[in-house]
Amino acid sequence: MTRDGKSQAAFWFLAAGLLSVFTGLVSAVRPPHIVFILADDLGWYDVGYHSSEIRTPNLDKLSAQGVRLENYYVQPVCTPSRNQLMTGRYQIHTGMQHQIIWPCQPYCVPLDEKLLPQLLKEAGYGTHMVGKWHLGMYKKDCLPTRRGFDTYFGYLTGSEDYFTHERCYDIAPLNLTRCALDLRDGEEVAAAYKGDYSTELFSQRAVSVIKKHNSSKPLFLYVALQAVHSPLQVPERYLAPYSFIEDRHRRLYAGMVSAMDEAVGNISLALQQEGLWDNTILVFSTDNGGQTVYAGSNWPLRGRKLSLWEGGVRAVGFVAGPLLEKPGTVSRELIHISDWLPTLVGLAGGSTGGTKPLDGFNVWKTISKGFASPRQELLHNIDPLYSDLAPCPGNQSRLTLARGVAEDRWAKFGFNVSIHAAIRSSNWKLLTGYPGCEVWFPRPGYNGSDSGVPKLGPLKPIMLFDVEKDPEERNEVSAQFPDVVDYLLTRLQEHQKTALPINYPDDDPQCDPGPTGAWGPWA
Ligand SMILES: *[C@@H]1O[C@H](CO)[C@@H](O)[C@H](O)[C@H]1NC(C)=O
Ligand SMILES: *[C@@H]1O[C@H](CO)[C@@H](O)[C@H](O)[C@H]1NC(C)=O
Ligand SMILES: *[C@@H]1O[C@H](CO)[C@@H](O)[C@H](O)[C@H]1NC(C)=O
Ligand SMILES: *[C@@H]1O[C@H](CO)[C@@H](O)[C@H](O)[C@H]1NC(C)=O
Ligand SMILES: *[C@@H]1O[C@H](CO)[C@@H](O)[C@H](O)[C@H]1NC(C)=O
Ligand SMILES: *[C@@H]1O[C@H](CO)[C@@H](O)[C@H](O)[C@H]1NC(C)=O
């Protein structure tokens, strides 16, 4: 009896062991589908769940059932955010720390960088991209289809008309403004979509990728929407709910956000209808803060797109899907756009062995289970060539003053504090040089005391904020915490030592597609 009892126990023990090995195998062969939706220029105050006047029922619902990332950072402008998403590495490590890739600049994300879709493809994924690339296209090897995506439908430059899909650009060495089509299906020019509003066009394409996908293979779908970048264009029907918004630009912008929200709704519905949703991780993120010049808003945060203030880098983002272990929560852990590569490749059961040293962390346990973030520090950027691209209300004199003062203090700190840079460490954020437009833009529809030019004195070359207590960056505390300042300046200097020289070539006149051509590889 005893022996029987023992062998029975041994049998069940073995069976349980086998079962767990088996379920382990099953889950190992069923990596999740990954759908990454990137919005363009969507500001902190431009989603319903941040109490905006703009309505985003789909984003609100998906994020309420998922995990909202409220201490989540991106880069202040387009190419850099996309670059870090695709490489898991800081801009200083790809030589792309300055600005964006303009249509005629002959460079792209270095070809020896291994990108996220390549890693996922190696892990057995079908990889598809829809929308904006903006990571360089001067030669064919730079195109998404040569960098890990099985299929691609979208545009290669940074912005264009939502209906004609034309991009106009001043080709300086030719003294010529060229307007030409920028839309491709794979590597071929896609000329048949004139008049189709891109938010609808791209979400339709995303839905068709989902419908065609054989669910026995894991899917990676990267949807980089044009919305809600300028120009302000939207079909009339999306404006109907916004007659109460007096500012015409903000009204158009609100309509564009609504169209984008509908696109996200359509994509998540397709995932459900096709039976993929139960094994899907959906990430939604903006690429940078809102551009106030084109009616975006980051209220109550300071600054905007292109600046290192919170309004430029603190991002709207969330993760949705039934695989989250603590759905319906808000994460206040520090997470950065460079973290997606190790996180998603980890979920895919893939390997990051083929990449260069990563700056990102695998934050899945932080997102899914609420663990503390492995990320203690975040280098926002170091860009010695920085200048703002859009007019900032009041004023350039501040910039000059900051530089003048800074020169004296450079030697003392070992880091040239005239350089535009920012670094975050736990609750602290240090900024040096001119961080970009420093204004607290008013809440849309209000022009009360929150508005306008700060009443504080001129900017200082070194500024310290406790962004956990003071996310609006109103209370500059470098004088009270000199040790924190010294430590963070040392960290900046250490990072700067690892930086590649900036690659930012002059326009190549050979980029000109001519009067009937399309933007695309020329070299
Ligand atoms: C550029 O073109 C404009 C208009 O055709 C002309 O006035 C100007 O002189 C040109 N500049 C140069 C540098 O060629
Ligand atoms: C979402 O789907 C509906 C129904 O098919 C369609 O009418 C609408 O245009 C779609 N919206 C977008 C933004 O693609
Ligand atoms: C999906 O792929 C599996 C495995 O390759 C195959 O057996 C199945 O027939 C495919 N299904 C469809 C609908 O193509
Ligand atoms: C310090 O940085 C500023 C801004 O990038 C630059 O203009 C200046 O030349 C630098 N100073 C020195 C001594 O390198
Ligand atoms: C910017 O500064 C200049 C020179 O100090 C001044 O004339 C101008 O009014 C200022 N502009 C704003 C918007 O404050
Ligand atoms: C903003 O202030 C102006 C001038 O005081 C006033 O006429 C206007 O109605 C205000 N607008 C809003 C939206 O409060």
UniProtKB/TrEMBL annotation:
<keyword id="KW-0732">Signal</keyword>
<keyword id="KW-0479">Metal-binding</keyword>
<comment type="similarity">
    <text>Belongs to the sulfatase family.</text>
</comment>
<keyword id="KW-0106">Calcium</keyword>
<dbReference type="Pfam" id="PF00884">
    <property type="entry name" value="Sulfatase"/>
</dbReference>
<dbReference type="InterPro" id="IPR024607">
    <property type="entry name" value="Sulfatase_CS"/>
</dbReference>
<dbReference type="InterPro" id="IPR000917">
    <property type="entry name" value="Sulfatase_N"/>
</dbReference>
<feature type="domain" description="Sulfatase N-terminal">
    <location>
        <begin position="32"/>
        <end position="349"/>
    </location>
</feature>
<dbReference type="GO" id="GO:0046872">
    <property type="term" value="F:metal ion binding"/>
</dbReference>
<dbReference type="GO" id="GO:0008484">
    <property type="term" value="F:sulfuric ester hydrolase activity"/>
</dbReference>
<feature type="region of interest" description="Disordered">
    <location>
        <begin position="499"/>
        <end position="523"/>
    </location>
</feature>
<dbReference type="InterPro" id="IPR047115">
    <property type="entry name" value="ARSB"/>
</dbReference>
<dbReference type="InterPro" id="IPR017850">
    <property type="entry name" value="Alkaline_phosphatase_core_sf"/>
</dbReference>
<feature type="signal peptide">
    <location>
        <begin position="1"/>
        <end position="28"/>
    </location>
</feature>
<keyword id="KW-0378">Hydrolase</keyword>
<protein>
    <recommendedName>
        <fullName>Sulfatase N-terminal domain-containing protein</fullName>
    </recommendedName>
</protein>
<keyword id="KW-0325">Glycoprotein</keyword>
